Amino acid sequence: MALINKFLTNKFEEPYILVCTSKSQMLFSKDLLDKEGIENDLIPTPKGFGGVCTTAIKFDKKFEQKVREIIKKNNIEYEGIYSLKDKYKYNLSEIFNMNISDTLKDIVKKVEANIELNKEEIKYLLEVENEEYDALIRMADIIRKECIGDRIEIRAAIEFSNYCRKNCNYCGVRRDNKIKRYRMTEEEIIDEVEKLYKVGIKTVILQSGEDPYYTTDRMLSIIKEIKQKFRMGITLSIGEREEEEYRLFSDAGVNNYLLKIETASRRLFELIHPDDDYDIRVKHTRLIKEAGMRAASGGMIGLPTQTIDEIAEDIIFQRDFGIHMIGFGPFLPAKGTPYENCKPGDLKLSLKVVAVTRIVCQHVFLPATTAIATLHPDGQTLALKAGANTIMLISTPPSLRDNYQIYSNKNMVDLSFAIKSTRDAKRKLPKYLNYDYLKELGYEIEDELI
User: Fold this and answer.
1) Tens digits of per-residue pLDDT, 391-446?
2) What CA–CA distances, in Å, run from 193 to 162, 275, 430, 438?
3) CA–CA distance from 57 to each of 82, 192, 284, 430 (Å)?
4) Angle at 130 between CA 129 and CA 131, to 5 degrees
5) Strand 325-330 relative to strand 294-301: parallel, antiparallel, unpaired?
6) Model confidence pLDDT, tens digit, residues 243-258
7) From CA 392, how far away is CA 366, in angstroms rounded?
8) Which residues contact 118 (CB under 8 A, 6 or more apart)?
9) How far is CA 368 from CA 36, 114, 257, 331, 423, in A?
10) What distances in angstroms separate CA 386 from CA 47, 135, 191, 318, one per listed residue?
11) DSSP-assigned letters across all residues of 64-125
12) CA separation for the pair 52, 448 (Å, rounded)
């Protein structure tokens, strides 16, 4: 835990939050608080204080009066200032009727009261079995329903380049792997975005290796065209960039930036990333938030030599760094990498991590990852039942998909697979999809799914 605490500031004796009416007002307020020397942090707005995947500013109660003076003087548009003592409470009474230990009952009481769990309690949850495992999954599903509801979120990824300057030991597109490389043109990217727009997808994920060919200007041109033509949400996943680039991307309309920590353990991070720096990755996680984009992160479960203690720290990292979208999936070996012959991650442990992350982080988006769908044919459905609420479609052109294999034998999750997973999990599809158009294309969608 000391490895994480080194980078965690903003520990508040009595935390309060400021919830603004817009991203611009939130960033303006944060800038003013920074200039006044008021320690603060950007966090996902907790349940009961605002919408999912919105951002609040956390600060200590001792600065409350000063913050009120600042927002009044500068005519800040805000929804309210709230004490986090008044947290949303959950009804988990049915869990106590299950065959669980006194230790788990004590943990459930804390979760019900919305009291933060410590690492030992998180580790306990990660190691439960039998009926206690069932209790864990049910508890996560209750919290998911309270925080997010029954409708899943569908996003779509266009993997527009598999060139990468990095040599991560686990990744199939690493620099030294002998694979067929490709780069999509701006026109090709926009054509794929248009297909998603017609289907009704609201957020596109632009993903690539760390490819210097896509300069700031090239990326800004793509971003601005998507915004002008389709007004879609944009998530970037293109690796570490400069601080100014993050601000330019945010100003151009990028909503989210996915930069996975992969593991919060310095030991393990350095083992799997021979040419990356742990401190820099942590710094960039903060820079993304401070630029005004929602931070997306996550990690792999079952990495070689990974421990339960380290997995608990991974979850705590996501909570304490205020990550909005958290993608945890099993480690899967990739052909041609140093980890090619390593054992894949465990399905049940991966599902536990999804469930515990929902319980610990609550009012955030959790994907049922492509990796878990690759590990097991029902993995995505099981993840949705364990607290996940988001599915990411693979929307790379079919002729290129096989060349973007971060891990081998990837399940190319398409809309049909997402519909099936949603149906099997007894969840609902998002309202924003263009169902008339989808039915014209031949998709079978029952009324109860809409």
Assistant:
1) 999 999 999 999 999 999 999 999 999 999 999 999 999 999 999 999 999 999 99
2) 18, 33, 18, 16
3) 10, 36, 19, 29
4) 115
5) parallel
6) 999 999 999 999 999 9
7) 11
8) none
9) 41, 24, 18, 14, 14
10) 19, 11, 35, 18
11) HHHHHHHHHHTT--EEEEEETTS------GGGGGSS--HHHHHHHHHHHTTPPP-HHHHHHH
12) 24
pLDDT tens track for 229-242: 999 999 999 999 99
Sheet holding 294-301, edge to edge: 325-330, 294-301, 256-258, 233-237, 203-208, 153-161, 390-394
From residue 48, alpha-carbon distances to 44, 90, 147 in Å are 12, 11, 9
Residue type, 395: S
- Amino acid letter for position 167: N
Confidence of residue 9 (pLDDT cuts 50, 70, 90): very low
H or E element, residue 226:
helix 216-230
User: Has residue 73 got a pLDDT over 50?
Assistant: yes
Cβ neighbours of residue 76 closer than 8 Å, sequence gap 6 or more:
20, 25, 28, 29, 32, 70
**Domains, in order of start, for the chain:** 2-83 (3.30.70.120), 93-147 (no CATH), 153-449 (3.20.20.70)
Provide the pLDDT confidence category of residue 10 given band limits of 50, 70 and 90.
very low
Task: Give the pLDDT score at 37.
Answer: 95
Q: Which residues contact 416 (CB under 8 A, 6 or more apart)?
A: 443
Distance CA 122, CA 64 (A): 32
Within 13 Å of residue 281, how many CA atoms lie on the same side as its CB? 23
The beta-carbon contacts of 211-216 under 8 Å, at least 24 apart in sequence, are 211/161, 211/163, 211/164, 211/165, 211/183, 211/238, 212/165, 213/161, 213/163, 213/183, 214/160, 214/161, 214/183, 214/238, 216/241, 216/245, 216/248
Return d(Cα 378, Cα 44) in angstroms, integer.
Answer: 30
CA distance 80 to 411: 44
Whole-number Å distance between alpha carbons of 345 and 348: 9
| CA atoms of 125 and 107, how far apart (whole Å) | 9
| DSSP letter for each residue of 374-436 | HH-TTHHHHHHHTT--EEEEE-S-HHHHTT--SSTT-----HHHHHHHHHHTT-B--TTS-HH
User: How many residues are present in the chain?
Assistant: 450
Task: Count CA atoms closer than 13 A to 95's CA, side-chain side.
Answer: 27
Q: What is the pTM of this model?
A: 0.96
User: For the chain, first and last CA: distance in Å?
Assistant: 43
For the cut 50, the answer to whether the pLDDT of residue 196 exceeds it is yes
